[in-house]
Amino acid sequence: MKGGCRFMTKYKSYRRKKLQPGRAPVPKISDADYGKPATKGDPVKILPRQNKQSSIVPRETIAGNSLMLVIAIMSFLLCITFGAVSLVSDTASAWQNDIAREVTIQIRPVDGVNMTEALERAQTIASGKPGIDSVTIISDDETARLLEPWLGAGLSLEELPIPRLLSVKLKTGKRPDFDELRRELTESVPGASLDDHQAWAGRLTRMAGATVIIGVAIMLLVMAATVLTVIFATKGAMSGNRHVVEVLHFVGADDKYIADQFQRHFLLLGLKGGAVGGLIATLGFLIIGYWTGQNSATPEGDQMTALFGTFSVGTTGYSGVIVIVILIAFLTAYTSRATVRRQISALEQN
Amino acid sequence: MDKFVIKFENVGLRYGMGPEILRDLNFQITPGSFQFLTGPSGAGKSSLLRLLFLSLKPTRGLISVFGNDTASILPDELPAIRQKIGIVFQDFRLLDHLTTYENVALPLRVRGKEDVSYRKDVIELLSWVGLKDRINVYPPVLSGGEKQRAAIARALINQPKLLLADEPTGNLDPSLARRLLRLFAELNRSGTSVVIATHDLDLMDQYQTRRLVLNEGRLQVYD
Ligand SMILES: Nc1ncnc2c1ncn2[C@@H]1O[C@H](COP(=O)(O)OP(=O)(O)OP(=O)(O)O)[C@@H](O)[C@H]1O
Ligand SMILES: [Mg+2]
Predict the structure, then answer these.
(1) Structural domain includes residue A88
(2) Chain A residue with the nearest C-alpha to that of B126
(3) Which of A61, A283, A341, B23 has a beta carbon 3.0–4.6 Å from A240's, enabling a disulfide?
(4) Cβ-defined contact of B186 to A244 (cutoff 8 Å)
């Protein structure tokens, strides 16, 4: 082998040659021994494909499509749940803000008491108190309109013993002394009562809190299911690629390198699946938002609006979707990595 | 350089609760040496190579590889040691989804080297073993002898200090077998310790060199 192979020449200078006992007495290898000798200066004509190298873990061996579908479904569920939770908690806090800025004085009709006078007296009493911004009497028309869904149109308030309301707007900051106000009102206006909405606000808070807890629990369950699915898929991929892992070990690959080869597929699957699920959820939000927007002129729409505001999933919802997609991708990648490394060390124990 | 590449002291091996397949092995492999490992089928040649390659732990006794006591090697030290050992398996163990080129380049690739940095070396080695025009072919379409040569090239590409070959000429016609043996000899001349497991007497007769003979679990060394 006289200068035939630059690989060997390099190799020889790379390793200081030392004569050792037990060295094989070797006949010289002539270039003729090799079908197609590599002659000096012979330009290499056949080059490896210039396009990208094959992936070390073949993509076909990973149950990619089904896993991606599962991840897409999981991410969709996560996004929808997150959207619902954020909608409820946004609405609840909006309600609470409204409630905190407003109390109601209610005056029941009492025989022999002029309602208009009573309303005005109550207005005067309340207006003078510190912390109160304004007191508005809910007019006949407005009351009638509030009652319309229940009692029908063309209502004459004079004929019915219907309680009347005053809406009291509060200043931000220090809240007025409601006990004092309540006492004064009941003393001087017969049939008057003050509702500071505390009981309702408390129930609302609890309801919203419960919804959030349920939502978070669902999200945790969905994430746990995702993790388990990824573990199964990774184990499947590992056992399908056992020979690959073995060969990688034999050629001196460390566990980190092997884990990287698997993880790269799973990260991509997680990203794709997560993005598909997130996209569909976003479309769902937009459609629902659009639909409620269209309906806001109708009574049903009004009620929806009254309950849920504009029913638009706010920026929290949409940024939540992005966070969820990224979270799903990393959860997938990390889970598969941890699974691979655990499997590898189990392999090495034998 | 360590005095010995490999050192066995009273090594014994059994699989599970089975009989002792290897018993009281005491031998050394010096740097740059060349030896055949032989013995009847089932004598434990492949098992001994697996011990040398650290893919099997001895039931008793001491093995030291490049001066490391195998009993105290940590799992994360294994890759660095394996990178110094080239191994040719009886059944090649090429990866069917990688081209011949990629298979041969694998030991370099897993060390994080860039394709451009080793392309020339790999192609040169491939043409040296006569596989130059099979570069972009996948192993399933290679002939037995071509696979064998690809496996050998993969074992050599990393310039190992120790080359282990298990029946490397098992599937080859005598003239190709001789040719590949010369390849090992050439590698040995540049300083690599070579251990070739074979029961091909014709092949061994061509080289008067050290022989390790396994029989009924014991090893006899003929220098
Ligand atoms: N993983 C294993 N579990 C249990 N027994 C094994 C295992 N591998 C090998 N053996 C047994 O160990 C003995 C030696 O096997 P080994 O493969 O080392 O022999 P060999 O010398 O390489 O044979 P051959 O020349 O046919 O390749 C055999 O009896 C075999 O049955
Ligand atoms: Mg064998």
Answers:
(1) yes
(2) A38
(3) A61
(4) no
Question: Is A48 within 8 Å of B135 when comparing Cβ atoms?
Answer: yes
Domain endpoint, select from A162, A190, A218: A190
- What is the spatial distance between Cα A282 and Cα A285, in angstroms, rounded to a whole number? 5
Residue pair B111/B120 in contact (Cβ under 8 Å)? The answer is no
All residues with CB under 5 Å from ion ligand 2 = B 46
Residues 6+ apart with CB under 8 A from B123: A44, A46, A47, A48, B101, B132, B135
| Residue A156 and residue A296 in one domain | no
- Say if residue A228's pLDDT is above 90: yes
Which of A190, A209, A224 delimits the end of a domain?
A190
Q: Given its phi and psi angles, is residue A85 left (phi above 0), alpha (psi -120 to 50 degrees) or beta? A: alpha
pTM for the structure as a whole = 0.72
- The class that CATH gives domain B1-84+160-223 is alpha beta
Q: How far, in Å, are A124, A163, A165, A176, B217 from residue A191 at the CA level?
A: 16, 9, 12, 21, 108
Does ligand 1 lie within 6 Å of residue B59's CB atom? no
The burial class, CB within 10 Å (0-12 / 13-18 / 19+), for B137 is middle
Query: Mind listing the pLDDT tens digit for each residue in B60-93?
Result: 999 999 888 888 888 888 888 998 999 999 888 9
Tell whether A329 and A231 lie within a shared domain.
Answer: yes
Same-domain pairing of A272 and A292: yes
The domain total for chain A is 2
Which residue's C-alpha comes closest to atom 4 of ligand 1?
Answer: B15
Higher-confidence position of A342 and A21? A342
